[in-house]
Amino acid sequence: MNAYEIYQEIEPALVAEMCEWVRQNEKALYANAVGSLAANRKLRPIFIQKKKPADQYAWLHKTLKLRTSDTVGEHLFQVYFMKGQQEILKAFCDGMEIPHDGEGQVEGDLPEELAADKLASTVDTLLGAHEPKLITLYLRIFNLQRPNGWENLSEILGSDDRLVLK
User: Fold this and answer.
1) Which pTM was predicted?
2) 154, 165 contact by CB (below 8 A)
C-alpha cells in the first residue's frame, strides 16, 4: 500500500490531527506541502492558505489521495511520526529490539526480518497504549520503509481486526 492509498483509507479526523500538528510545529514543511500540492493541481498556494484551517485540511486530504501526491504524502507521514509521535517509534523499536537514538531514529539498517513473536507482542503493547487507528497508520508507514514491506507485518495488517484505518 502506497501513501496515497493510505490517505484513501484513513479517517479525515486523523488527517486533520496530523495536518494541524504539522502546521503548528513544522511551518516550512506545511507551507511547502501546500505549495507543491497546489501547483500540482494548477492552483496558487494563496488560494488554499486563505481557507480556514479545517478547510485546508479537508483539501489536503482530498489532494493527498491522488497518486501524484504520493511523495508529499509519505513525507508528511514520516515527519509526523518522527517528530510528533516519537513515543510510538521508540516503543516499536524497543519492542522489536531495533537499535535507535533514543528518539526513534533507527541506527543502522532496518532488519531484514521481523521476529514474529516480538512483532505480535509489540503490536499488542502499542494497541494497549495508543489509539488503534494511529498505530495502524504507523505500522503501515513503517511497512513502506522497505520495498514490499515485511511479509509478517503485512499479514498482521491484513488479518488483525484491530488494525483498520476506517
Assistant:
1) 0.88
2) no
